[in-house]
Amino acid sequence: MSRTFYSSDATLEEDAETVKLEEEYLPTLEETWDEQELEKCKKWIGENNFKRISLQFPDTLLRHSVTIYEQLKASTEANFFILGDTSYGSCCVDEVAASHVDCDALIHFGKTCLSVTTRIPVLYIFLRFGISVEDFQEKVAASFPEGDEPIIVFSDSPYNHAKERFQEVLSTRENMLIASLATDANTKRNFLCWTVEGLPQIDPEQSSCLFVGEDDQTFFNLSLTVKCSKWWIYNPRNEALSTANPRTSAWFRRRYYYVEVCKDAQMIGIVMGTLTSSRYLEMAHRMQNLAKECGKKTILISVGKINPAKLANFSDVDCFVLIGCPQNDVFNSRDFYKPILTTFEVELALNTAWKDTIPETYCLDFKELLPNGKFHRECEPGQEHDAENDVSLITGRVRENLRNGTVAEDVGSGRELLERQSGALVSNRVTEAFQERSWRGLDPALGQHEPAQIVQGRSGVPIAYEENKDAAM
């Protein structure tokens, strides 16, 4: 056994080995802030007469927060507040934290998902990473001959400052579109946070898509959303242009396995990953109604930033569905005790309108599943009752279509019986998990015991406690 955890002489020894973790890149102040951004903020604040403004930074930019704060404070008469810890992801605008200091505006720094907000005006300050536009032009000219298939160029937010340069050097090429980041909430969005003008003339499915940025979560989410003939990625850091195929079959097999898990689930945990994105409550109600129609129980969970330890407390939940921004990377994590599904995967599992349908693209923006969204589907009247029983691909057991039964009570009220079409009463397994639990919570028994005396506890380390024999204090 390692002496780090056990020692016969009851002493601890420091382990000489150190674990070297890959450090996250920390942008410099020049890549975050300059005189141009300062003038942009001053103009925005003055035109709208804002008085109390929150400055939201991700962890990688907090070291620049004081410098930026002092420059803004010296240039304007407004009051500024630095938000150091966000309620959810750093890419999402934290309106909740801003409301704690009664702010009337917010300036967001760094990478962002550009989720539509409704409560507070927001100004986005993107990072400004360096890029050789000349090298980009040469690589595009070599890989995409003139007159070839159409091309749609998407730029990640740190390279959005070079969008005008892209348009200049590529203006002579035909059938090439430059996507723009939708920083305005009223701008129509075609793919996640991008808007592309000229799509009626160019079909994305017959085009090549080029992403300017790194092979990260942003590119992965975008590639799942856009169906095209081929994906390319240009990494400005190493000035390399290459093809990419993030839509691997292994990833899809794992996600469709989670869809089957959702079909088998008796209890679904609806995890709130945002409290500011528009229509998030409408999406939560839709998830609850879909589960209710299938005879499944739901629990609404809001724990702030999500991690495996928090969700492991809900042992009765068979799977979770996260309502949050598309840039969340918890969907790819295998550290969680139970699977975490997207809202689209729950639609595939529980909405009979998607039965026997394999979508060609994925929906990561939950608002697209709501009415007027591109992926919205409603069951036709009576369609939910015509669904037949099927067999679970995981357990091999028959899954009964609970929509065929006449419900004795509302699912959300903890009903215990339902009626089959034959008239026989059967037990609903939704409530069995609660009935068989051996632990039902703490019983305080207030006022039934004498107060305990305060005594001095043990001291030392866990493997060598020093017992204190002093009398009770």
Give a count of the beta strands, DSSP E runs of length 2 or more.
22
Give helix % range. 10-25%
Largest sheet: 5 strands, mixed
Ranges with pLDDT <50 over ≥5 residues?
Answer: 1-22, 405-423
Strand-pairing-aware structural class: alpha/beta
From the alpha carbons, calculate the radius of gyration and give it in angstroms.
Answer: 27 Å
Strand order of the largest sheet: 6-5-9-10-11
Helical stretch count?
Answer: 13
What form results from the Cα inertia axes?
globular
Separation of termini?
Answer: 39 Å
The proportion of strand residues reads 15-25%
Instruction: Name the average pLDDT.
Output: 80
Plain-language structure description:
The protein is globular and about 85 Å long. A five-stranded mixed beta sheet has the order 6-5-9-10-11, with helices on one face. It has helices at residues 29-32, 35-48, 65-75, 95-100, 133-143, 163-169, 217-225, 249-264, 280-293, 308-311, 343-350, 383-386, 432-435, and strands at residues 52-56, 79-83, 105-109, 122-125, 151-155, 176-178, 180-181, 194-195, 208-212, 230-235, 240-244, 267-272, 297-301, 319-323, 340-341, 390-391, 398-399, 406-407, 417-419, 425-427, 459-461, 464-466. Strand 19 (417-419) and strand 20 (425-427) form a beta hairpin. The protein is α/β, with parallel strands linked by helices. Helix 9 (280-293) packs parallel to helix 11.
